[in-house]
Amino acid sequence: MLAGDAGHAVAAPVVGDSVADDAGSDATDSMTSDDGTIVTNSSTRSLVFVDPSVPNLETLLAGVDPASELVLLTPDAPGVEQITRALAGRKDLQSVHILAHGASGSLQIGNSIVTESTLVQHQQLVREWSRSMAVGADLMLYGCHVGQGEAGTRFVNRLAQLTGADVAASIDATGAAAKSGDWELERVVGSIESSLAITEVGRQDYQATLAITIRAAGVTNEETMVLQVGGATVATFSNVGGDAYAGQFQTYTYDVDGVSAGDVRIAFTNDLYDDVAGIDRNLRIDSITIDGTTFQTESPTVFSTGTWLPADGVVAGFRQSEFLHTDGYFQFAPSTGGDGSLIQIRAAGSTGEESVQLEIDGVVVQSWDNIGTAATNLSYQAAETVTADRVRVSFTNDLYDPDNGIDRNLTVDSINIDGASFQTEAANVYSTGTWLPADGIVAGFRQSETLHTNGYFQYAATPVDPDNPGAISLTLDSLTVDEGLGTLNFVVFREGGADGAVSVNYATNVGTADGNDFQSVSGTLTFADGVTGQQISLQIADDDAVESDESFSLTLSNPTGGATLGSIVTQVVTITDNDEVFAGILFEDSFEGSSNWTTDPDGTDTATTGQWAAGAAQATSSGTTTLQLGQGRTGSRALVTGLAAGSSVGSYDVDSGVTTVVSPDIALPTGAEVQLSFGYYLAYLNNATSDDYFHASVIAGGVETEVYADHAHGANQSAAWTDVMLDLSAWAGQTIQLQFAAADALGASLIEAAVDDVVVEVLPVLPGTITIATTGVNLDEAAGTATVVVQRNNGRVGTVTVDYATNVGTADTADFTPVAGTLTFADGQSEQIVTIPIINDSIVESLESFSLVLSNATGGAVIGSDNTAVITIADNDSTTPDYLPDLTPIASTLLENLSIDRNEIPGRTLLRFSTEVANAGDGPLEIWGGSTSGNSQQVFQRIYQADGGYRDQLAGEFVYHPSHGHIHFEGFATYDLVLTDASGNIVASGGKTSFCLINIRQPLPTVTADAGLVHGRGGNSCGNVQGISTGYSDVYSASLDDQWIDVTNVANGQYWLQITTDPENNIQETDETNNTQRVAVTLRDGQIIG
Prior knowledge:
The chain is mainly beta and about 1100 residues long. About 5% of the residues lie in helices and about 40% in strands. Strands 4-3-5-9-10-11 form a six-stranded mixed β-sheet. Keywords: Calcium, Repeat, Signal.
């Protein structure tokens, strides 16, 4: 079966020996592509993707089944994009295998971590994979724990849904058995028929797992060690063994992969010191190993918060020790690689006990303690090229104790980067810890080598020329801050000179962030002679609203005193939100157990029967129309009207009013994207009117707001579950109740309704999927404009854009005015409209069409599968004579089988009759649509012409009727009972207005013989082309559904029984005046007289 169709179907796990390997295939030569990807040429139908971060790569590649084609991904591009490109152009693949690091619900491929959210955001790319796969193809994921837990299940199900493939993934460690791994893929959706990508020999040879290994020892063996990855605790090890003081370590392993050392913390969590009892717990960590790379704990790059040293006790810092003496952690750092800039700091301390930290881009990369009193070079090898303006040198352990003669100060003579020297006393070096006699310790460009208190030197890349006023600039053109920052400082400096007093104006500018997000400031900064730096401060607001990233800017202008503006005059600040919203289900009820919904909560319901109740419904039907189903949408129970209906069709239905039911209170989080989903049905017979309905509403703060409605439309409607999804985000931050209502407005109708599987959930915070709401738009060329609605679904977070453009088809630029542009959806916005001008020319044409296509979504949004609208234009310019139909009802047929029916609806009296409509024109009635099922669709009347051609004009719509199993042409005829007096008032009407038009009889053979065109293509089926041929007729027998008028409450007397065809003149005919026929009918005491 196809996994995309199977839902949550589960098969047996895929194991190493469950399916025989395809042995005996000859390996083919391998080659290396331009991007470094290794491809093994093969004519087989199996493709294997391998991520380069997988350990023991050469052994693993050698073990790939030679009957498969191999693709080695690159580490510098997103994995989903790489796989999509590699699959493009391929067909009929039986299996696709991905070998990569993984964790529960995620895979590391290329330079990205792919989660369920990633799949949703890039679903357009992922859906492309199915084009390369055969029906029933297998997609197999060999990453540790990918299918584990709820996140793993969602990930696998989503991948199956998007690709249509059967998917298998591991729920534990994948790889060598000696390292607690295996090659079983236990999480399966669909039916897996393919062999594993790695041969039996390859699986035996491979000695790695796709894990973090910790060498640790405790002092008392009661110590608890916690492993954290990315700030989250993933494993806890109690009673750590070994002998810490003797250096006898034990190995602890956790199976997670695709992790950088910089994501890893080892924490000690149960310190205890009891001198009396002789207890002193301490934890010693020798090293950690990640995917074969070992990181020593005593490295100067490892940060510690729980290490004691004789010089200063327990303080946080780069302690170069293996011990945690109190509760705290070791924070590891990734290997630098050693091929970037060499940074040397020439520094000395006044006491020799001073500590120094080196920061690059605000991140501490190295620290040194007790640097001594003699000038020394402190060196750091970076992993990349570093410029001086990214460097800070900090003094971190100031101490002033005059009683003991202690005054720590740090002197930094200079820094040297790749041979280039930068003097600390230069006018463009910013200091936060320098004391000067004039003003003490203030931040600024102090032109000093000494930090007298804890602070830093921030270097710049441009030398200073003291003989000119300089250029005034900001230090950064962009900066991203957390909204919890508090005070934000802008550093403004003049470079290239500091001669004379100068000034510059500054002001903030709102963007997507406004005055609610930051403090607006403006003013003038003055630089005294020789002063090279100033600071502007403002406050960032830490609100509780869940928001997308927002930005504002600060701009410099109008320099004076001979100064000029420098290279950066505007700094854009992006504020990232720190408020999280729960994502998941807030409320659900499938009514399988006890339910606390309340019927008639206000005591205002008017229905005499059929009130809402939760329980196991009984099946009910009237003729072929099912009015109540005998089960819920899922399970046996639902929320239904007339719970005990059973076979008593008219005894328990909703009658003579409205019945309501409300849910318990549901609290919606502030700022959340909230979705309501439920299943329902509304069933009725054809005497129901649009005043009979099912409604769904939201009640908040005492105000009721209707969010969904389904009204009857005068034809039998069988009960069939319909799924509804609604956006409730407008009520985020409020407590709401859901209300469902069903109504029989006049008491004469038979109405039943039900609701099941009500779910209110907070959607993940996603930018959304952009689609076209209606992909087929039909119009007359006189319409003036065509309107295409573009929607954003599955998330509305942030500002996103999508491009659109028209493309010519059979209609060209003489028929419409091309449009192209970009639609912008603001944060929270879900709909936009594209309007296309239509040209009303005088040229005789057939139906013509063009398209509007969406492309290039931004802001994280993706484009859905409905990305193209086809606009069809009907011509209105023909001067060639037409062969037109003439719809003529036949009066005598109304008297055929004229009868009274009291069985269809117990307690009601129905007048049944047959109807017949003939075509007396010189051409066929032919109605063309595009689909035989689904939603309503506009249709055209095809009009044949004397020159052998034809033209089309809009004529109404086709609607699919589930109870009949085919489509009907809507509004074709009406049935009425009319007073015979001068008033001509209608006293009762039949519900039937839609018909399936086919040829039944030939009552007018002479008309057939004289016709310009008899048959065309219409008149022989209930498909997407319907009609009545010339001289033929369509007959609806009295025994068919809806061939009646309810006369229960009609007074005794004589009436006209009347049929009117094409009451709204949607069909073009030779004669529009002969569409009504009638016969006299006398009713007395519910009987037909005469």
